[in-house]
Write a structure and sequence with these properties.
It is globular, with a radius of gyration of 19 Å. By secondary structure, it is α/β, with parallel strands linked by helices. Strands 6-5-4-3-2-1-7-8 form an eight-stranded mixed sheet. It has a single domain, classed as TIM Barrel (Alpha-Beta Barrel). The two termini are 22 Å apart. Helix 2 links the parallel strand 1 and strand 2. Helix content is 32%, strand content 11%. The model has no long low-confidence stretch (mean pLDDT 94).
Length: 318
């Protein structure tokens, strides 16, 4: 079954955009990690990175679009792009909420010793990947020694005030399943994370966001190697939940690739499914509000965002 056929079977129209309120900016695919589930196929050997002229244009468009309340910066490890600090500092100067999608270990990389303090000084929200509160699962998905370094990075952030009760320095964690299954209920898992991380490591955070693994790039290759592609796609299709449709992130988000091309979401970006509107790059569009009402490009991976409790860059939907 196609995604559009699933919508029709539930009496729902094809997906269309509302007024964009989030600008998600992928500044490149270079990362200090190479995680097994990564839909970006990011890693230390990737060379794609947003150049200065695209970063400049992103900031021009942001200034011209006051309805954009959130700038969501991602990668790769976005902090490794040489224009990262300029982008987030200027976005904050413009009064926008800024999210740094951080893998945690980048905070310990040579040359990044002041990164956590920089994020705190500019009140950048940190959304940090931590697929489990135990060493074995994290290291299996993200690489040997990643769990220990992630805990060290979390303690560094906590020391600056991130994640503390009542603190304005927001620290959210992200859970991705370590296999071909859907995330458990977000609230239940958050309670488990909070208890284990607090009791075992003295780590505090604000929220846990559960995100379904998308059958894209590296995770798709893993499914294929294990002979699980059809079963996983069937799992997603069979758990299609129309209640997730109103809050899908693609309705109010514009995704900008490292080269300036525009997409309906980060997942479409990795599949090179262009924005389903006349504009193709950030240079083609001054007023993002003109995208309201445009159709959204969909494909089979969209079942990942609509399965079970749903999934988005902000966690569960239903």
């Amino acid at each position: 079954m196609t995604f559009d056929a699933a919508l029709a079977a539930h009496g729902r129209p094809r997906l269309a955009r509302r007024l964009p309120t989030t600008l998600q900016v992928n500044v490149g695919k270079r990362c200090n990690q190479a995680c097994h589930h990564c839909h970006v196929e990011a890693g230390p050997k990737r060379t794609e990175r947003m150049p200065a002229e695209v970063a400049d244009r992103v900031l021009v468009v942001l200034a011209r679009n006051p309805q954009i309340a959130v700038v969501d910066v991602t990668g790769g490890a976005p902090e490794l792009n040489p224009h990262f600090r300029r982008i987030v500092a200027e976005a904050r100067r413009l009064g926008r909420r800024v999210i740094d999608r951080c893998n945690l270990t980048v905070l310990l990389e040579p040359g990044q010793e002041d990164l956590a303090a920089f994020l705190a000084a500019h009140q950048i929200d940190v959304v940090a990947s931590l697929p489990c509160y135990g060493r074995e699962n994290v290291d299996r998905q993200r690489g040997a020694g990643v769990f220990e370094r992630s805990i060290a990075a979390l303690r560094r952030l906590n020391g600056l005030g991130y994640g503390r009760p009542g603190s304005a320095l927001r620290l959210d964690l992200v859970y991705n399943p370590v296999g071909a299954f859907l995330p458990p209920p977000q609230a239940t898992l958050e309670a488990d994370y909070r208890a284990h991380l607090r009791d075992d490591f003295g780590v505090e955070f604000h929220r846990l966001l559960t995100i379904t693994n998308m059958p894209i790039k590296r995770f798709a290759e893993q499914l294929d190697r294990l002979g699980q592609t059809a079963a996983y796609q069937g799992l997603l299709v069979n758990h299609f939940n129309p209640d997730t449709l109103p809050d899908l992130m693609c309705r109010t988000l514009v995704s900008v690739g490292w080269d300036g091309r525009l997409y309906d979401c980060d997942f479409n970006q990795m599949l090179e499914l262009p924005l389903a509107a006349p504009a193709r790059t950030i240079f083609d569009l001054d007023d993002l509000a003109t995208l309201a009402g445009a159709p959204i490009a969909t494909a089979s991976h969209c079942f990942g965002c609509t399965a079970g409790a749903g999934s988005s860059c902000g966690g569960a939907l239903a």
